[in-house]
Amino acid sequence: MTKENPIPSEIRRYARDLRQNQTDAETFFWALLRGRRFSRMKFRRQHPFGRYILDFYCHERKLVIELDGGQHNGGMAEKYDEERTLWLEQQGIWVLRFWNHEVLQETEAVLEVLWDSLYPHPRPLSQGERGRG
User: Fold this and answer.
1) Beta-ladder partners of 96
2) Which pLDDT value is given to residue 104?
3) What domains sit in the chain, N to C, each tagged with a CATH number?
4) Cα–Cα distance between 26 and 29 in angstroms, integer?
5) If both were cysteines, with which of 46, 47, 78, 83 could 18 make a disulfide (CB 3.0 to 4.6 Å apart)?
6) Per-residue pLDDT for 15 more than 80?
């Protein structure tokens, strides 16, 4: 946010609260990301952005990682998450979502998806695109 458009104090307070009361998955994942430990990218946790608070945010790559528990499964929460993701994408931000249990039980797979998102691989050319030669 800019000086002309400061983060509202209630959002700032809520983000601070969330940092102090992380889920087990958030605590575990933050230990992997903090201090540029993963991919040398700087991540911020519980980062205010607009009217939202992002679980983990990498400004350099415009990437958000959201860790979701069961409360995000279905109903109004799912609709809210979809609207939030759409708004963030309209701001030029890519959103990755993982379930808490994925982070805790399938950590390597989650980190592979994150790595591929930070460093996308070029698509190999098909035979037709390579030409014959």
Assistant:
1) 65
2) 95
3) 9-119 (3.40.960.10)
4) 5
5) 46
6) no
> Quick check: pTM over 0.90?
no
Backbone conformation region of residue 131, classed left if phi is above 0, alpha if psi is from -120 to 50, else beta: left
Which helix (H) or strand (E) segment holds residue 65: the answer is: strand 63-68
pLDDT per position as a tens digit, 58-101? 999 999 999 988 665 667 888 888 999 999 999 999 999 999 99
Cα 59 from Cα 67, distance rounded (Å): 18
**Cβ 114 vs Cβ 65: under 8 Å:** yes
DSSP class of residue 71 equals G
Q: SS3 sequence, 41-57?
A: CCCEEEEEECCEEEEEE
Contact 50, 127 (CB under 8 A): no
